[in-house]
Amino acid sequence: MIQVFDSAPAGLQPAPKDPRMLAAGYQVSVREVNFGTVTDRESLMLAFLGGLALTQSFGRNWDALYDVLTDPETRPARFALLLCGYARFRSRHATLAAPLEATLIDAQAEATRLGRQLWLLIEEADSDPDAW
After folding, report:
1. Is residue 61 domain-resident?
2. What is the pTM of this model?
3. Would you say the C-alpha torsion 4, 8, 70, 115 has a positive or negative sign?
4. How many structural domains are present in the chain?
5. Exposure b/e, 116-127, CB count within 10 A at least 16 = b
């Protein structure tokens, strides 16, 4: 079975079983963003602020999020963003999920252009990949 880290990042993907353990074996740094309490753009930006361990100077907008994810000074060359509870968030907040996904995909493409890797992994509590 091919593992997610065997291939180049390709958009939003289902997280593998035990993603943190698997990532360690591939020398991929993982940060987790929990979407369980996200209800609007402000709480979304706060989830990224906490999940990425950002400072309060984080701009809390799409451009600032893109910049943080593509900054080689602050992100490792092999980096996975574990999006916890994202499928449920997406189904409840489609209008907020659309610009977020565009930002994440753009950041992933820029990382690739720079010779870096940014995986965007969706993890659900029930670990059911068909849930999203």
Report:
1. yes
2. 0.90
3. positive
4. 1
5. bbbbbbbbbeee
